[in-house]
Write a structure and sequence with these properties.
The structure holds 2 protein chains of 2 kinds.
Chain A (H helix, E strand, L loop, with lengths): L8 E5 L4 E6 L8 E7 L6 E6 L2 E4 L4 E4 L5 E6 L8 E8 L8 E2 L3 E6 L1
Parallel strand pairs in A: 1-10
Antiparallel strand pairs in A: 2-7, 3-4, 3-8, 5-6, 6-7, 8-9, 8-10
Chain B lengths: L3 E4 L2 E4 L5 E7 L5 E8 L3 E10 L2 E4 L7 E2 L9 E3 L8 E8 L11 E2 L3 E5 L1
Parallel strand pairs in B: 2-11
Antiparallel strand pairs in B: 1-3, 3-8, 4-5, 4-9, 5-6, 7-8, 9-10, 9-11
The chains are: A mainly beta, B mainly beta.
Chain lengths: 111, 116
């Protein structure tokens, strides 16, 4: 089972781009990488998912190198409302088994 | 509105008094799971269910039971709660994602449990 490692915390300022990297050295061939965002007193919510190379949606981009042993969530031009905990999750379809969440990265965006 | 509903949201109980936290989803999802969240430890999976009558242990199943008699419901049962089960609990559901990549997990709002 892939274990993930993320930085415990990060600080940024409004308008900057933030990149959060997740390490998953033991990722399996069928595993996908998913990122979730969590605000205090709320359940996590889906941000983005990818398998390889680059995926982009309206809120974030996900970069996955060829060896897939890490991934980087990129948040463009963050605002105060992006202050949250971000989780990297590695898992696969057709048998979720134990979906392993990392300990999360606490992002603080300052004015 | 698509949602995952947990009850109760807050509960204070005493050691040994059996309790059940209910979870219900209205999205016809096959997959449901329970997590506990503790400071510094992130989200840890307790149990998961691939479909009705199919359940399996996650990372931290000790002291918990689950059942999946209906597709929409996945209750978490603490037969004899202990103080180390004081935590914030989340239920989540998703489609099975058979086309590749597990489906987006939809989480409930959480149930904060305190065992004295």
């Amino acid at each position: 089972l892939a274990k993930t490692t993320q930085p415990i915390s990060m600080d940024s300022y409004e308008g900057q781009e933030v990149n959060i990297t997740c390490s998953h050295n033991n990722i399996a061939t069928n595993d996908y990488i998913t990122w979730y965002q969590q605000f205090p007193s709320q359940g996590p919510r889906f941000i983005i998912q990818g398998y390889k190379t680059k995926v982009t949606n309206e809120v974030a981009s996900l970069f996955i190198p060829a060896d897939r042993k890490s991934s980087t969530l990129s948040l463009p031009r963050v605002s105060l409302s992006d202050t949250a905990v971000y989780y990297c999750l590695v898992g696969f379809s057709g048998g979720y088994n134990k979906l392993i969440f990392g300990a999360g990265t606490r992002l603080a965006v300052h004015p | 509105e698509a949602q995952v509903t947990q009850n109760p949201r807050y509960l204070i109980t005493v050691t040994g008094k059996k309790l059940t936290v209910t979870c219900s989803q209205n999205m016809n999802h096959e997959y449901m799971s329970w997590y506990r969240q503790d400071p510094g430890l992130g989200l840890r999976q307790i149990y998961y269910s691939m479909n009705v009558e199919v359940t399996d242990k996650g990372d931290v199943p000790e002291g918990y039971k689950v059942s999946r008699k209906e597709k929409r419901n996945f209750p978490l049962i603490l037969e004899s709660p202990s103080p180390n089960q004081t935590s914030l609990y989340f239920c989540a559901s998703s489609f099975e994602g058979i086309t590749g990549g597990h489906g987006e997990l939809f989480f409930g709002e959480g149930s904060r449990l305190t065992v004295l």
